[in-house]
Amino acid sequence: MFDAVFTAAQSVTDYRGTLNVDKAASRRFNAALRRNGIFKSDNKMYVALAHDQRDVEASIAAFGLAAAAVVAEPH
């Protein structure tokens, strides 16, 4: 289980660190993932045994594209 958060904090190490994040950036990130074929709700992402190497590689590529989309559209 994991999630991507957008924050000015140096690191996020516990739940309290997720309370002051850029929710708009997270929504843009999740929407960009969906546009790139990866379903991610506003919650955490879960990896299952059903995911094979191709799924993982596709997810990594989509995360890169989504991160670039957030940087390119900062509002």
Mean pLDDT over the residues = 88
* Total number of strands: 0
Largest sheet: none
Helix content: 40-55%
What share of the residues does DSSP label as strand, in percent? Answer: under 5%
The 3D shape can be described as globular
Uncertain regions: pLDDT < 50 for 5+ in a row? none
Task: Chart the SSEs and their pairings.
Elements: H1 23-35, H2 53-72
Helix pairs in contact: 1-2
Detailed description of the structure:
The chain has one domain (15-72). Helices cover 44% and strands 0% of the residues. The protein contains 2 helices and no strands. The protein has helices at 23-35, 53-72. The radius of gyration is 13 Å and the shape is globular. The model has no long low-confidence stretch (mean pLDDT 88).
Task: Summarize this structure briefly.
The chain is mainly α and 75 residues long. The protein has helices at 23-35, 53-72.
What attributes characterize this protein structure?
mainly alpha, 75 residues, globular
